[in-house]
Amino acid sequence: MPKLTAIALNATLKSSGEEASSTDKMIDLLAQKLSAHDVELTETIRLADHDIKPGVTSDEGEGDAWPAILRRILAADILIFGTPIWLGQMSSVAKRALERMDAFLSDTDDKGRMPSYGKVAVLAIVGNEDGAHSITASALQALNDTGWTIPAASACYWVGEAMQSKDFKDFDETPEKVDQTAGMVADNAAHLATILKGHPYPGHED
Asked: What are the coiled-coil residue ranges (predicted)?
């Protein structure tokens, strides 16, 4: 069976030229755990670097960066969807990416399967305030609505104390519980992606 691949979307509000991103560090942790299952992270796309137009189609016209990003996402078996917490919610950049995936509901094949069918999605969440559980609920619901398959234990997160300044990127060593959770997420994602690659969803015929 061909080797599994993963791709990551980093929905930090920082562009690549700015300071390091804690979301990148969480994505890298999951990528490291996935590599133990021979899953290759092909790339991490920092969404803030690209002009992703608002909308709910796969192509919003001239200058829209989403179509090229979408092709790269759909070429992989596993999506790591990474977002920081802002105001207790996922970032605005993360919401825009999910809104653009709404097009999957109509971009189906002749068996009614969305382009994301047979592909696995997991979450990487970081922040210095509460919000990880509500983001997990809303993001996984959106991903499931748009055809992604969600494994058991599908979110790895870290949240610091309220009103404090320490970020996830500031840790020299990953906190033990976060490391254990990342391993579980990777185990389940790789297992499920392997099954789906060999046994795709049958779809349905009218």
From this structure: none
Q: Which CATH number fits domain 5-198: 3.40.50.360, 3.40.50.2000, 2.60.120.620, 3.30.9.10?
A: 3.40.50.360
Task: Yes or no: say if 132 and 91 are a contact pair by the CB < 8 Å rule.
Answer: no
Per-residue CA distances from 66 to 11, 61, 96 (Å):
14, 10, 10
Tell me whether strands 78-86 and 89-90 are parallel, antiparallel or unpaired: antiparallel
**11-51 pLDDT per residue, tens:** 999 998 877 899 999 999 999 999 999 999 999 999 999 99
Nearest Cα to Cα of residue 31 among 85, 80, 67, 77 = 80
